[in-house]
Amino acid sequence: MVDYSLARRATIASVRRGLTPSADVCDAHPELMRAARNIGEERDAPCPICSHRSMRWVRYVFGDELKSNSGRVVYPLTWLRELVDRYDQFTCYVVECCIDCGWNHLLRAYAAGRRYRSPAPAAGLRHRV
Questions:
Q1: What pLDDT sits at residue 117?
Q2: How many Å apart are CA 59 and CA 102, to the nearest integer?
């Protein structure tokens, strides 16, 4: 998994110091805004730019094996589990987006699919999910 939280923090700090105009980071693509507004996963956190509580997470999947599903938004979340069961390997991207001001940032990217599933725990052992 690649976590982009440090890049996110640096971008937010740059805006707050006045080094980066908010218009440069509040530029979500119309398709991302539509996905965030209609099917994005609501987050109980304020937007780091406008402070409104209108943050959403949108998940996208990409991979050659996915064919026509590559580049699609994952909705509902149970579809991601179906993709993991069906395909060996693909990449999932999680993007946060504010539906008020258009702030958007890639949060994380991770490999998914049958190849990356955790093996079942040994009998009698418990594990955290």
A1: 80
A2: 16
List, in sequence order, every residue forming a beta bridge with 91; answer none if it has no partner.
62, 111
The pTM score is: 0.86
Domain boundaries, the chain: 2-116
Structure tokens at 8: 């996110």
Residues 2 and 110: beta-carbon distance below 8 Å: yes
DSSP string of 9-49, one letter each residue: HHHHHHHHTTSS-HHHH----HHHHHHHHHHPEE-SS--TT
Of 52, 50, 48, 70, whose CA–CA distance to 61 is shortest?
Answer: 70
Cα distance between the two ends of the chain: 16
